[in-house]
Write a structure and sequence with these properties.
The protein has 343 residues and is of the alpha/beta class. The chain has eleven helices and 14 strands. Helix 6 runs antiparallel to helix 11 and helix 9 packs across helix 11. It is globular and about 55 Å long. The mean pLDDT is 97.
Length: 343
């Protein structure tokens, strides 16, 4: 708690950013100029190359730039660190920051396999330091509205979730196994977390099929999750084609739908009514990805957790992160994806 005395005393959450890539840009851009400066400040950024960190810092008006990730761990003015690096670097960076007593928000997937995820969760819990997998969807107003509609009985008893996520993607981080690539880790996690949210976190039976690219990554996947009481989720991913990218929740009385479900600003209710949600405004730079201003909701949620002294998120707990990692591992192994980290 000593590390968080600034926040617990009502001071701003002082963010450090690990990695100066596109997703880190969007996350930082959703804070600077968007969230109140008395509540959130981005005070430092680190990258493998000092030039990248300095360029990032200049763009976002960040005071400190480091060319070494350890320097960010050593910065006493940093309360919480957002990790936006490639998947294969998540474990080492998050361990470094947790060991330094820094709270950590790490991009999804938390790690490339269940073994690594368990290692990181166990470390965070033993250190009693905040760790959250950055499943930003869980923090969206549209998700809160979706769950309210379900809880209010709008669709009756939910029996089926249908969710798909696909774009033509050529980047190495998705298509190269040595970078922890594959559509399940990059896209499928979003579909899985939605099914897990709707169905209460139960560990389902996993059945999966798909196709591999030349490096051994899954370029497409079809996953069936079978839950108790006749409930099923049908999930699909692709990095070859554009899919509808909707989440459809089907119950005994009706259906609700999230448009662009992973960063949704529109919920279609069972009566056909469209409920729309404003994106946070005030960003100083253009975003790289669709509706990235929604990252502001995630940053705000982390602050709420820290101000309560929580070491886990109540929107995406570490127990749920472990369950999702288990589902992803079973699915990719059934398709034939094997990472070096699995050995």
């Amino acid at each position: 708690m000593d590390k968080l005395k600034n926040i617990l005393a009502g001071g701003p959450t002082r963010w450090g950013i690990a990695s100066a890539g596109l997703i880190s840009h969007d996350f930082t851009n959703s804070i600077v100029g968007v969230l109140p400066t008395e509540e959130h400040m981005v005070v430092a950024v680190a990258a493998r190359k000092i030039e990248d960190a300095e360029s990032f810092a200049a763009k976002h008006n960040i005071e400190k730039a480091y060319g070494d990730y350890q320097e960010l761990a050593n910065d006493e003015k940093v309360d919480v660190i957002y990790i936006g690096s490639i998947n294969t670097a998540h474990l080492s960076l998050a361990k470094m920051y947790l060991e330094a007593g820094k709270s950590v928000l790490c991009e999804k997937p938390l790690c490339v396999n269940l073994k690594q995820t368990e290692e990181l969760v166990n470390l965070a819990r033993s250190k009693k330091v905040f760790l959250m997998e950055a499943v930003w969807s869980r923090c969206l107003p549209s998700y809160k509205a979706m769950m309210k509609a379900i809880d209010d009985g709008e669709v009756g008893e939910v029996k089926q979730v249908i969710c798909n996520f696909g774009f033509p993607i050529t980047t190495d981080r998705v298509n190269k196994k040595e970078m922890g690539g594959g559509t399940i880790l990059d896209l499928g996690i979003y579909t899985i977390q939605l099914a897990q949210l709707v169905f209460g976190g139960e560990m389902p039976k996993v059945t999966a099929a798909g196709h591999l690219n030349e490096t051994g990554c899954d370029e497409s996947a079809s996953i069936i999750l079978t839950y108790s009481d006749g409930r099923t989720a049908s999930l699909s991913t692709s990095c070859k084609v554009q899919l509808p990218n909707e989440a459809v929740i089907v119950g005994t009385k009706g259906t609700v739908k999230l448009i662009n479900f992973w960063t949704s600003i529109e919920l279609i209710h069972a009566d056909g009514r469209s409920e729309k949600f404003d994106l946070p405004s005030g960003a100083r730079n253009p975003f790289n990805f669709l509706n990235s201003a929604n990252f502001a909701h995630e940053a705000a949620h982390v602050r709420q957790c820290l101000m309560k002294g929580a070491t886990e998120s109540d929107l995406i707990s570490l127990t749920e992160t472990l369950t999702i990692a288990n589902i992803m591992e079973q699915a990719r192994k059934q398709i034939g994806v094997h990472y070096p980290q699995d050995d």
